Amino acid sequence: MATGLARSVHNLVTTPFKILVLDCDNTLWQGTAGEDGSDGITLTPANIRLQQWAVDLRAKGILLCLASKNDPDTVAEVFATRTDMPLRPEHIAAQAVSWEDNPVEIAEVRAACPEVLALTLPLFGGRG
C-alpha cells in the first residue's frame, strides 16, 4: 500500500515527459558504428531492453528522437541492416545526428525543457 501511495504522490508532483531523446553508440548498441560498422556493433540484453522500453513508450504517446555525435549515413545503415533491433526507423520522430552534439547540450535541454527525459547512459550499469 505504501508503494502505491508513493507512486500516486510522485505522479501528482512530477511532470510526465513527452519526448525521449536517445544516443546511438554505446547506448542503443555497444560499440562505435563508424569504427565497427553495422556488423561490428553488438546488442546486449540491456541495449535490447532499452530499445524495447523506448518502443513501449512510443506506444503510449511519447515521441522518440535521436541525438548522436555520429555520421548520419552510418546510423541509417545500422538501422537498415540490423533488423534484430526492436527500435526501427519508423519509431523515430526526429533526429539530430551529426558531429555537433555533446553532453553540455543534453544538460541545456534538461534545464530548458523539463518535459523532455534526457538520460546520460550507461543507465543499466554497463552489464548485459
Automatic annotation (TrEMBL):
Gene3D superfamilies: HAD superfamily/HAD-like. This is HAD-IIIC family phosphatase. It comes from Saccharopolyspora elongata.
